[in-house]
Write a structure and sequence with these properties.
Layout: H1 2-18, H2 30-39, E1 43-48, E2 57-67, E3 70-74, E4 82-85, E5 87-89, H3 95-104, E6 114-117, E7 120-126, E8 132-139, E9 143-150, E10 165-169, E11 180-188, E12 190-192, E13 197-199, H4 213-217, E14 220-230
Antiparallel strand pairs: 1-7, 2-3, 2-4, 2-14, 5-6, 7-8, 8-9, 10-11, 11-14, 12-13
């Protein structure tokens, strides 16, 4: 009997060891750095434009600034307008360069004559001074533009002088040529006197016609988008 009890007891210990919870150290991958980058002020938003690949388009990055819901600045009407094409064609190059591209296969799609193609737009933010936010707008493989956005401090007593801004993407689908397509809003937190707090809450995606209630509450914001035209 004692021998049987010992066997049962040791079997129980063995079972516990087999099913024990363990933790192991692993090597971090890129996704593990995202929370740290966000906390340090780095953010990036991406948008798929692969549907444009069958034609060549000019894509003009545009920034619009609003104060209390009123448009106060539109970069498309300024002296500095920046646009990038979504692709380059092999035929854009001199004849000798074309021969080299064809012989070496150095192209996105030789059959269609596409040398480089941008299938994605990125809008990224890097930390700068409290009163500034640096935005980089780019089309992969094609080019990028960097601008600084001037921020406004909060005026509510507890937070007076603090710069607190958040982000919201727009719900976009179709691109209308020649029209402004909003992609991302960068806006200030606002004061809620009912609860005596500052907040940045509302729709997860904003309406492209700027009718979202959230925008009526934000005292200062930027809308970053594109104007696409046929080359």
């Amino acid at each position: 009997m004692r021998h049987l009890i010992f066997i049962i007891f040791t079997g129980t210990i063995f079972s516990i060891n087999v099913n024990a919870q363990v933790i192991k150290r692993t090597e971090p991958d890129l996704s593990d750095y995202i929370p740290l980058l966000n906390a340090a002020g780095y953010e990036v938003f991406t948008f798929d434009i692969a549907s444009l690949k069958d034609e060549t388009y000019n894509i003009q990055f545009t920034i619009r600034e609003y104060t209390e819901g009123t448009l106060v600045y539109d970069s498309s009407k300024s002296d500095f307008v920046f646009s990038i094409t979504n692709r380059t064609m092999i035929s854009d190059f001199p004849e000798e360069s074309q021969k080299k591209i064809l012989s070496e296969g150095l192209a996105y799609d030789l059959a269609k004559g596409i040398y480089t193609l941008g299938e994605k737009i990125s809008i990224g933010f890097t930390p700068s001074a409290d009163s500034l936010k640096t935005v980089t707008m780019s089309i992969e493989n094609m080019g990028s533009l960097q601008r600084s956005l001037s921020l406004k401090p909060l005026t509510a007593s507890k937070w007076k002088g603090k710069f607190m801004y958040g982000y919201r993407p727009f719900k976009v689908s179709d691109i209308q040529l020649g029209c402004f397509t909003p992609l991302l809003m960068v806006g200030s937190y606002w004061y809620d006197d009912k609860f005596d707090i500052v907040r940045f809450c509302g729709e997860n995606e904003l309406s492209v016609d700027l009718s979202s209630e959230m925008l009526s509450l934000i005292p200062h914001y930027y809308v970053i988008g594109i104007i696409v035209t046929k080359e």
